[in-house]
From TrEMBL:
<dbReference type="GO" id="GO:0070813">
    <property type="term" value="P:hydrogen sulfide metabolic process"/>
</dbReference>
<dbReference type="Pfam" id="PF00753">
    <property type="entry name" value="Lactamase_B"/>
</dbReference>
<keyword id="KW-0479">Metal-binding</keyword>
<dbReference type="InterPro" id="IPR001279">
    <property type="entry name" value="Metallo-B-lactamas"/>
</dbReference>
<dbReference type="InterPro" id="IPR044528">
    <property type="entry name" value="POD-like_MBL-fold"/>
</dbReference>
<dbReference type="InterPro" id="IPR051682">
    <property type="entry name" value="Mito_Persulfide_Diox"/>
</dbReference>
<feature type="compositionally biased region" description="Low complexity">
    <location>
        <begin position="14"/>
        <end position="23"/>
    </location>
</feature>
<dbReference type="Pfam" id="PF00581">
    <property type="entry name" value="Rhodanese"/>
</dbReference>
<dbReference type="GO" id="GO:0050313">
    <property type="term" value="F:sulfur dioxygenase activity"/>
</dbReference>
<dbReference type="InterPro" id="IPR036873">
    <property type="entry name" value="Rhodanese-like_dom_sf"/>
</dbReference>
<protein>
    <submittedName>
        <fullName>MBL fold metallo-hydrolase</fullName>
    </submittedName>
</protein>
<dbReference type="GO" id="GO:0046872">
    <property type="term" value="F:metal ion binding"/>
</dbReference>
<feature type="domain" description="Rhodanese">
    <location>
        <begin position="51"/>
        <end position="147"/>
    </location>
</feature>
<dbReference type="InterPro" id="IPR036866">
    <property type="entry name" value="RibonucZ/Hydroxyglut_hydro"/>
</dbReference>
<dbReference type="GO" id="GO:0006749">
    <property type="term" value="P:glutathione metabolic process"/>
</dbReference>
<keyword id="KW-0378">Hydrolase</keyword>
<dbReference type="GO" id="GO:0016787">
    <property type="term" value="F:hydrolase activity"/>
</dbReference>
Length: 413
């Protein structure tokens, strides 16, 4: 599909309306309009980032908030909101941004404080915009782009991309049926609507593994669409506490006459599956276009090294026997550099050539992975429990749990 979330690249662009839980409303619509400055929607900001436009992102949040989660931009300037309040009194706003080049895009949690800052900059003669909805609005931006048909064969595969966290999901449509792979709970309604717009009923909601970085939408989609929830058989072994079809390596999930073949891909988790659709491989959190998975989100530290060895076997043996022409469509990406023409994909053969990790022997691979892991995803233990159905979280709580980067990669290669 042409991306129904492709915005006008200018400040007035709106793109698709962000999905929102009932508890949160629509942060973009609720964001105050600046007075003299412009307003930039999250969708328009994504276009600026994808196009490599030069601007300065002015983050007005506190340091701990920025360190936990931020928008990467060509130029960044971090100045707390309280300093602008003081500068408004002294008339010394210019000193806070002295030397930085505009245009400026001001950011705060919900677009309120940053609207004031953007106006101060505009009044001082700068080209300035407020990010409507702030970081909460940014977290609700969800873009969709169709993958090339030369890889997906008889199915249409739509890739969903959440720029705020790097999460990717997929809608597989064949005939009058559809399946969603690795859905996010926040956007459950979106998948159902998009399938219907393509004349298809959602018959399956699939997770490639038990996620640790975001709240799964499998059960929410299943409820909304009367679809079947599908998880790897390994999820059952981890204590899955709700009814779902278990999918084992070598089995095939059929959607509209097209098979989604389950390929064993353990290492990130014990039960990780990749799904092959035509010549497209949905790799979940095993292989990314800019790195490989981390092996420490399921087990205690003592077992992490063995999980890393298992991951090496997945990437070099299980995937090693696959054709290099396969299109890899992963579950995450680490930076906007991975986005090309609105998609995050790469041919398997190209990844073998450009990712150093894939050419290492087992023990050097293990050392590289273990030395490259950053912080675990925020709230990962609670998110895992929610995704297994062993704990519950309302819509607002689920949204708050997953805010921030996914951190599922071991290291970018």
């Amino acid at each position: 599909m042409t991306d129904d979330a492709t915005p006008d690249p200018g400040p007035a662009g709106s793109g698709s309306a962000p999905d929102a839980s009932p508890a949160e409303g629509d942060p973009v619509a609720d964001s105050p309009e600046p007075g003299t400055a412009g307003s930039l929607t999250p969708a328009a900001l994504a276009v600026w980032l994808d196009a490599g436009r030069e601007f300065t992102l002015l983050d007005t949040r506190n340091r701990d908030e920025i360190d936990a989660w931020r928008i990467e931009a060509p130029r960044r300037l971090d100045v707390p909101y309280m300093r602008f309040l003081s500068a408004r009194v002294t008339g010394d706003v210019e000193a806070l941004v002295g030397g930085a080049e505009g245009p400026f895009v001001a950011v705060c949690p919900r677009g309120e404080a940053s609207a004031e800052v953007a106006d101060l900059l505009a009044d001082a003669g700068h080209e300035a915009y407020n990010l409507a909805g702030g970081m909460y609005g940014w977290a609700r931006l969800y873009e969709a782009t169709e993958l090339p048909t030369d890889a997906t064969g008889d199915a249409t595969v739509v890739q969903y991309r959440r720029p705020s966290s790097g999460c990717l999901a997929y809608l597989v449509v064949a005939g009058d049926e559809a399946a969603v792979v690795d859905p996010l709970r926040t956007f459950a309604d979106r998948y159902v609507t998009d399938a219907a717009d393509r004349g298809a009923d959602l018959v399956a909601a699939v997770d490639t593994h038990v996620h640790a970085d975001h709240v799964s939408g499998v059960r929410a989609v299943a409820d909304r669409a009367s679809a079947g929830a599908v998880l790897p058989v390994g999820a059952v072994d981890r204590g899955l506490a709700f009814d779902a079809r278990s999918l084992a390596p070598g089995e095939t999930l059929t959607v509209g006459g097209v098979g989604l073949a389950a390929v064993a891909a353990p290492g990130h988790t014990t039960g990780m599956l990749a799904l092959r659709v035509g010549d497209c491989l949905l790799t979940g959190d095993s292989l990314f276009v800019d790195g490989v998975a981390r092996p420490d989100l399921e087990v205690a530290d003592a077992a992490v090294r063995e999980f890393a060895r298992t991951l090496h076997g997945t990437l070099t043996e299980r995937f090693g026997g696959l054709d290099g022409g396969l299109l890899v469509a992963p579950g995450h990406y680490a930076s906007e550099d991975a986005v090309v023409d609105g998609r995050v994909t790469a041919r398997l053969g190209d990844l073998r050539e450009r990712l150093p990790s894939l050419s290492l022997d087992r023990e050097p691979f293990v050392e590289r992975v273990l030395s490259g892991m950053g912080p675990r995803p925020a709230n990962h233990e609670t998110i895992i429990a929610v995704n297994l159905g062993r704990e519950t979280a309302g819509a607002e709580a689920a949204f708050e749990l997953e805010l921030g980067p996914n951190n599922c990669a071991a290291t970018a290669d």
